[in-house]
Amino acid sequence: MTELFLHVVNISISASWLVLAVLLARLVLKRAPKWAYVLLWGIVGVRLIFPFSLESALSLIPSVETISPTILTDATPKVYTGFPTLNQSINPVLSQAAASAPDSAPNLLEIWLPVLAVLWFFGVAALLGWSAVSYLRLRRRVATAVRLEDNLYQSEAVLSPFVLGLVHPRMYLPFYLDQDTMEHVVAHERAHIQRRDHWWKLLAFVLLSVYWFNPLLWLAYLLLCRDIELACDEKVVRGMEPQQRADYSQALLSCSVRRPAIAACPLAFGEVGVKQRVKSVLRYQRPTVLVVSASLVVCTIVGVCFLTNPPIPRGFPMQGHNVADLDPQEITEQIARIERLQDASTLNVNPDQFEVRLNADFQWVDTGTVRFFYWQNQQSYSAQLQLNLEDNTYTVTQPTTCPEQTTIYKLRDYLEALKYLPQEEIRRLAPDADQFSITHVAEGIPGGECTITYTDDGVSDLGGWLIHLVVQPLYQKANGGYHGTGDEAIHLFYGTPPTQLLATYWGPSRPGTLHLKTPDTSLDFDTSYLELFSDGTFLWSPSVLMSFVARGYFEQTEDTLTLYPKGGASVYVFHKEGDTLTYDADASTQPLPMEKWAYLPGV
Fold first, then answer.
1. 444 near 468, Cβ under 8 Å?
2. pLDDT: is 24 or 179 the higher one?
3. Domain 501-599 is classified in which CATH homologous superfamily?
4. Residue 403 above 50 pLDDT?
């Protein structure tokens, strides 16, 4: 329910900008026919109903997804308002609210967002329930109404004329109306039925019930009700003479005197804004072609600019020029947002990577590029992360389809391997180097004099390696170029610290299963395996010869094993059957095709 609530909030925020635009347009269109006002509110309704929209460079919506649906699972939750200064004010507060509480207690976001979601649900239920009860009470009050003709009824319980019903609407009138007043009232209510106002007002009230927490939409609903009445009045008096319009105005005043302050049912039409309506009727002039054309142009502009979504900016700020300034978590989360991925852990790289060039101080020499891949909608895509040093920004290129990658590593692991480069150790091995060329390779075993193993905390022994980098020292030549000797390559292995291995599961014997490894089990080179460690972490690799492509945390009971990949929102559930793990696609967030199960959870 929390995710649905956040989705509703995001739509509400987008619609708020449209409501403000409509309020401004109503001021501009003072002489416009009132049906143009109703049309503008209809545009608001379209924005509230449809959860998707086309992208357009003409869109004036600052941000289509202000709050991420994965804000509860993001390590550093953020909002994207479309205003950087506002983001910088709000996001630190969110990060503090999401800070882990002692003893694994839920943080403030984990407490309050579900509470707000429940309050929202009960608010919707209360408004719809009140509407239903009011409707039934009103139907019971007019049950004894006297039929005059067709769908026209009179009742002593009616204080002011209204239309009730959807499929077969009926007009209900009080008994106190004289003949002339009744003619005007009936004409007005018939105009409502012809315009299907009883449908549009019901739809508007349902939308208001869903978005009840937004005060701008309450204002929009009240103005819509008023504009519907004004548009209906214009339809009735369009062909009237001045004296007839005066009589019609007197009928409005006559009905309004006996009208209660608050209508009993949101589906029943009564008179609203009588003073303004009388003035509008008495001053009515048929709009010119120019006014009508201008009204349609304004409505079109509002629709194009506020019914469409802005393209997600494919750039974001870069912090510092030293490789140690990389923020892998922020970068992968931004890329996932740009590419509309729910899980940043699905971003991968392969060894066919661009060369990284750093100077002697480990700063980027020129614009760097990282090629990455991801799987979406049963298709593999490739894009590039470009580092623009001049304007201090990252840019993500447009994705293109590509063949499915057979050897993949986590993009976040690759960026962390660069961020935590053992700079002092590299300088010790190549003290005179002017630059360093860094490449990513697939195979290798730690060992030798020019080998360094390291983790997030620095140089260390490894429990398992994740990324293998080769650093080639470069020296400046007299002509300004750079060259390497070829025999000074430094092999870097980035991975996880040692920990006690609890169990190893291997596969496949059939799709979707893993088996517990025993001392007598020998694994083939193409065997995938899952390792569980005493610190609650896991490592996953689709091949003995390949780097681990996924890591994270696990929870297990007597019957199930649940994997939570690092840096993502996905959850993978296995059922225990003796020494066998069986993947449960229904209980997991990623119902992967079984032919791809060996790459779980990297796909």
1. yes
2. 24
3. NlpE, N-terminal domain (2.40.128.300)
4. yes
Mean pLDDT taken over the chain: 83
Concatenated DSSP letters of 407-471: S-EEHHHHHHHHHT--HHHHHHH-TT-SEEEEEEES---S-STTEEEEETTEE---SEEEEEEEE
Q: Is the pLDDT of residue 104 over 90?
A: no
Q: What is the pLDDT of residue 602?
A: 43
Query: Which residue(s) pair with 369 in the sheet?
Result: 386
pLDDT for residue 36: 93
322 is written with which tokens?
């030293």
- In sign, the C-alpha dihedral spanning 453, 455, 461, 466 is negative
Q: Is residue 457 classed exposed, middle or buried when 0-12, 13-18 and 19+ CB atoms within 10 A define those classes? A: exposed
Q: Phi then psi for 587, rounded to 5 degrees?
A: -85, -10
Of the candidates 438, 432, 310, 303, the one whose C-alpha atom is nearest the C-alpha of residue 364 is 438
47 pLDDT more than 60: yes
Confidence band for 569, pLDDT divided at 50, 70 and 90:
low
* DSSP letter string, 460-519: ---SEEEEEEEEEEEEE-TTS-EE--SS--EEEEEEE----EEEEEEE-SSTTEEEE--T
Residue 270 pLDDT > 50:
no
Label each residue of 243-266 as H, E or C. HHHHHHHHHHHHHHHCCCCCCCCC
**Residue whose C-alpha is closest to residue 418's, from 410, 408, 407:** 410
CA dist 373 and 404 (Å) reads 9
Task: Report how far residue 385's alpha carbon sits from residue 397's, in angstroms, rounded to the nearest whole number.
Answer: 7
The whole-angstrom separation of Cα 90 and Cα 463 is: 39
Helix (H, G, I), strand (E, B) or coil at 332: helix
Q: Are 380 and 429 in contact (CB under 8 A)?
A: no
In whole angstroms, what is the distance from residue 138 CA to residue 127 CA?
Answer: 16
pLDDT tens-digit readout, 463-496: 778 899 999 999 988 887 888 777 788 999 998 8
Residue with tokens 């729910």: 342
Angle at 272 between CA 261 and CA 36, to 5 degrees: 155
- The sign one gets for the Cα dihedral 172, 178, 183, 185 is negative
Distance set, CA 442 to CA 47, 491, 528, 541 (Å): 49, 12, 16, 13
- 309 conformational bin, left if phi > 0, alpha if psi -120 to 50, beta if neither: beta
Q: Which tokens go with 372?
A: 């990455």
pLDDT value of position 107: 64
Q: Residue 141: which of 187, 189, 174 has the closest Cα?
A: 174
Whether the Cβ atoms of residue 155 and residue 141 lie closer than 8 Å to each other: yes
199 has a pLDDT exceeding 60 = yes
Task: Give residue limits of the domains in the chain.
Answer: 2-306, 315-496, 501-599
Q: Which residue has the higher pLDDT, 15 or 588?
A: 15
Entry pTM:
0.69
